[in-house]
From TrEMBL:
It holds the Pfam family DAGK_cat. The keyword Manganese does not apply. GO terms for molecular function: kinase activity. This is YegS/Rv2252/BmrU family lipid kinase. Its cofactor is Mg(2+). InterPro entries: ATP-NAD_kinase_N, Diacylglycerol/lipid_kinase, Diacylglycerol_kinase_cat_dom, Lipid_Phosphate_FormReg, NAD/diacylglycerol_kinase_sf, YegS/DAGK_C. Keywords: ATP-binding, Kinase, Lipid biosynthesis, Lipid metabolism, Magnesium, Metal-binding, Nucleotide-binding, Phospholipid biosynthesis, Phospholipid metabolism, Transferase. Belongs to the diacylglycerol/lipid kinase family. It comes from the Bacteria. The lineage of its organism: Bacteria, Bacillati, Bacillota, Clostridia, Lachnospirales. Residues 1-131 form the DAGKc domain. SMART domains: DAGKc (SM00046).
Length: 295
């Protein structure tokens, strides 16, 4: 019996970049010995349903699109409770997670990895009842990101620009939160927070501290405090633009579980897509629970 692959892609990701490569990508899968079922995603959330209901029928699921497409496939597979290896052919304009895995932006090369590579047991984030692959975030910059474009390109650069342009500090949206992790409790006001499992976010490499591994069972957490004066604001801008390596305005730590509580609803993004409004968020690391295909 031949191996079966579900090849699921978003035809519109990266300005339709896949169209030029589609025949070559499918040919790579056929030559690797797969019987290929092709599915084009029809709307937001479609890939979640498809991956969830079809996970048990295939030896491998290969997806192509931006981070949002990968997020949907991983969410669907995790929700199915069935373990099936996932190959990823990035088509977005930033490729933080792919780069972290050694998957570049050449789509045919990525197809070779997806079809011929080996499963790598990778951590995945559980966010209340939802899942994320490499970044869950809230705050000023996230809203900019998903309102203006679907990818994370220059997200933090844009954030620094907005902060610099803020005429009055009190114009910056701020969220009072209680953050609990590993027996610690922080109670503070934040303009931004992110929980990541990636070497870079929004194309930025420097701002995530410590030893990063995608299968170590912990996330890196970065929380930026609300600036109270222009000096603190400048401190944050310097940190975001990489001028300074650390900041008194920033909490950084690693953990496998954290809980964030606020009195008002806060808007979150998961892998750059809208993740809902929540006043209570529990994030846990599902250690090595998804299988991503790497070289
Ligand atoms: Mg990690």
């Amino acid at each position: 019996m031949s191996k079966r692959v579900l090849f699921l892609f978003n035809p519109r990701s990266g300005k339709g970049k896949i169209k030029e490569n589609l025949a070559d990508i499918i040919d790579v899968m056929v030559k690797a010995g797969y019987e290929v079922m092709v599915y084009t995603t029809q709307s937001a959330g479609d890939a979640v349903q498809k991956a969830r209901t079809e996970a048990g029928n295939y030896d491998r699921i290969i997806c192509s699109g931006g981070d949002g497409t990968l997020d949907e496939v991983v969410t669907g597979v995790m929700a199915s409770g069935i373990s099936v290896p996932i190959g990823y052919i990035p088509a977005g304009s930033t490729n933080d997670f792919g780069n972290s895995l050694g998957i570049g932006s050449d789509m045919v090369q990525a197809a070779h990895i997806a079809a011929e590579g080996k499963p790598f047991p990778c951590d995945v984030g559980k966010f209340n009842e939802d899942y994320f692959v490499y970044v869950a975030a809230f705050g000023i910059f996230t809203e900019v990101s998903y309102q203006t474009s679907q990818d994370l390109k220059n997200m933090l650069g844009h954030a620094a620009y907005i902060l610099e342009g803020a005429k009055q500090i009190w114009d910056i949206p701020s969220y009072r939160m209680q953050v609990e992790y590993d027996g610690n409790v922080l109670y503070d006001e934040f303009i931004y927070g992110m929980v990541t499992n990636s070497m870079s976010v929004g194309g930025f490499k420097g701002i995530i501290p410590g030893n990063i591994a995608l299968d170590d069972g912990v996330f890196e957490v970065t929380l930026i405090k609300t600036p109270k004066n222009p000096i603190e604001l400048n401190d944050i801008v310097c940190f975001l633009t990489g001028i300074s390596k650390d900041s008194n305005q920033v909490y950084s730590f690693q953990t496998n579980f954290l809980k964030l509580t606020s009195s008002e609803d806060v808007s979150w993004t998961l892998d750059g897509e809208y993740g809902g409004n929540h006043h209570l968020v529990a994030i846990s690391n599902c250690k090595q629970e998804m299988e991503i295909i790497v070289e």
